[in-house]
Amino acid sequence: MVGANLVHRLVKEGNEVAVLVRPATNRIRLQAVEGRLQFVMGDLTDSASIQTAVQHIQPQVVFHLASTIWGKQPAVSPAAHVEVNVLGTAHLLEALRNIPSVRLVFTSSSAIYGAGAQLREDQFPSPGTIYGASKAATTILLQTYARLYQLSTVTLHLFMPYGPWEHPSRLIPHTILSALAGHDVPMTLGHQQRDLIYIDDVVEALLLAATKPVAPGSLFNIGSGVGVPVKEVVERLLRLMGNPVKPIFGAVPMRPDEILTMSADISSAKTVLGWQPRISLEEGLHKSIAWFTEHRELAGRLAQRPDEPARDTVGVSV
Prior knowledge:
By secondary structure, the chain is of the alpha/beta class.
């Protein structure tokens, strides 16, 4: 979802964009702009293909969005989290090490922190999941390459992005699509708090991270700065839609590794990147309702395809 919105924005602004894809990748999110993209085959878990792809593209900026996922079924194995997130990133770093002018922007996750409010970038990682641990290890790896080889890396710890192109199984699109279909929404008790950030604000942060003069190895939290209970998010969505269906709180058990409290301290991103979220939760929910209502058929097609174990890396020549 993040990659699709980023690519659409980059194409709109006239950038030359190359997208690294695996042979089996479904490109449904990029169909509208695929004629303006260069697709390069490769796989983060295959170091030779990454070396070849980088040599072919010779990028000025690389947006590294590839990742396993957390909280989906079937569950991703610990070995896969490490292979894709850690070893895959090591392959990419090695391929980029001899391109002196390149900048690598990596999307990490708030899952590295574990639970907490107003989490800061200098907080010691305390992940509660293997996914979070792999992201923490990857973040350290990028900082190490920045120190040892002066590679210009920037890491963004994303909290909870939402908006167009999001997978229909996730909280906000699932609630919207259920309401459009006239189905009540079974869910947990909804006490867990999440720091939601609309995708347009995330894309803006990515572009600033790619262009602002910042120290190699820099880290920035990207969120709204406010934790909102999931229960409240669902209730607000349904209220904005006229309450066509009911939420059924407590119908779904909480995950054993659920993180109950999570919000970001975003002061560093404001000060150093000059970034701050511009779209309120109310406006973002309105935009999401409008997009998924208009693209209901497309959302159904997204739901029918199996989740892939890793998203794609986007390499951009600017």
